[in-house]
Write a structure and sequence with these properties.
With 177 residues, the protein is mainly α. The chain has two domains: 28-99, no CATH class; 103-177, no CATH class. It is built from six helices and four strands; from the N terminus they run ααββααββαα. The longest helix has 31 residues, at 146-176. The chain is globular and about 60 Å long. The model is unreliable at 10-20 (pLDDT under 50). The structure holds zinc ion (2 copies). One zinc ion (ZN) is lined by residues 108, 110-111, 113, 133-135, 138.
């Protein structure tokens, strides 16, 4: 009797573990929403990548793998699907132009080498975000684990912001005196 009970308990426990493992592996819908929000926040243009017309509430948001393309109307969508690579390159250029001035790191996030020491810095655009790298090996490294690099970029942005806030506060305090 006791043996049978133990067996049943073990089965139940195994099933429970299974359920936990399955829940862990399944991508959470919240993460999808977070990824989409980040893509929208980092989007470099307020115009259609095809026509150059302003984006409106009826514009089409195309989420493809790890990127977002915003298009103003169905006609442009048709044009986009025939020249995708060219338009994606245009989008990458816009990301580089927009994010370069406030880029928070002065070294390669993978090797730690100073970017100033390198003549050809590689501007990699992933998920509408700019990453400046020193070599093709570092590009491969980022592509294997972009989340880690994004986290580094995020904390670098935070650090820059914290320093600015600190300086603002210092200035404010000085003016009060
Ligand atoms: Zn259009
Ligand atoms: Zn590097």
């Amino acid at each position: 009797m006791l043996t049978r009970f133990c067996f049943a308990a073990t089965v139940l426990l195994t099933l429970a573990n299974f359920a936990i493992a399955a829940a862990k592996e399944e991508p959470k819908p919240a993460d999808h929403a977070k990824i989409k929000a980040a893509l929208l926040a980092n989007y470099p243009l307020n115009t259609c990548v095809i026509s150059g017309n302003p984006l409106t509430a009826t514009s089409i948001d195309l989420f493809m793998d790890d990127r977002l393309v915003r298009i103003c109307c169905p006609n442009c969508l048709t044009d986009f699907s025939t020249a995708t690579d060219k338009d994606l390159a245009k989008l990458d250029k816009a990301v580089i132009a927009k994010q370069s001035p406030a880029y928070p790191l002065d070294q390669c996030p993978i090797s730690g080498e100073k970017l100033n020491d390198h003549e050809d810095i590689i501007n990699l655009v992933l998920a509408n975000r700019l990453i400046k790298l020193c070599s093709t090996a570092c590009v491969q490294n980022v592509k294997q684990n972009p989340t880690k690099t994004f986290a580094m970029l995020d904390s670098a942005v935070q650090a820059v912001k914290a320093e600015e806030d600190f300086n603002d506060k210092k200035r404010g305090d000085a003016e009060e005196r």
